[in-house]
């Protein structure tokens, strides 16, 4: 079984094992989830204080079937979008560490399940970033495909429209994120899986590794002989195959990466 530790015991074998693996790698593939943004004030979904843990009904706002079939669901979803704490969030030390990893030429690819855009704001480039679940920063029409800044739609919401339609065709607008029931972009998935297959080290940060297909990056990497490091507040299904570190990601990650 792999060693694991809390970050407060930085001399323990699990932390040291993870730091050694990362320091010796010439290139690192990174997978991030909601946990990397919690220290920026954005709650995760499945954690003890997660959005869906506290309010199971909230999950229906992330279902494309519910969204398309109910104007009341859409109105509720728009209210939630406008109130999302991500609009006022700033990148934390965890985001900044991953941006610095890229600046130092050691980041092969950053795959994120997050939609908040904080990796870009921290300084990671679009060329080395795959947002597998899309972005909340844009809005898209499900009918004609029109895409534009989310801020334009939120301004209409503030002006009194509860369920703003597409200005071009009158169709239903949604955030440019992948809702339950929608297909992920196959190009993004292939890019993520190819990176995992070629990885020397796969670093998983703030993800429960329970959302598929993207969680398959871990067994793909392991099958090709890569080493896996997991930094997460809660256990994951792959802890026994990885070097595992618990704790606040904004506190843990810079030290693990030697930054």
* Rounded mean pLDDT score: 89
Rg on CA atoms, Å: 19 Å
* Annotation field: number of helices: 10
CATH architecture of the largest domain: 3-Layer(aba) Sandwich
Structural class: alpha/beta
CATH topology of the largest domain: Rossmann fold
What share of residues are in beta strands? 15-25%
**DSSP summary, beta strand count:** 10
Q: Can you say what the CATH homologous superfamily of the largest domain is?
A: TPP-binding domain
Task: Characterize the overall form.
Answer: elongated
The main pleated sheet reads as:
7 strands, parallel
Strand order of the main beta sheet, please?
1-10-9-8-2-3-4
- Classified by CATH, the class of the largest domain is Alpha Beta
Q: State the end-to-end distance.
A: 28 Å
Q: In a nutshell, what does this entry contain?
A:
With 259 residues, this protein is of the alpha/beta class. The chain has 10 helices and 10 strands.
Topology:
Elements: E1 4-6, H1 13-24, E2 28-32, H2 51-54, H3 64-69, H4 71-83, H5 93-103, E3 107-112, H6 118-122, E4 129-131, E5 134-141, E6 147-149, H7 150-158, E7 173-177, H8 186-198, E8 201-205, H9 217-223, E9 227-231, E10 243-246, H10 249-256
Parallel strand pairs: 1-10, 2-3, 2-8, 3-4, 8-9, 9-10
Antiparallel strand pairs: 5-6, 5-7
Helix pairs in contact: 5-10, 8-9
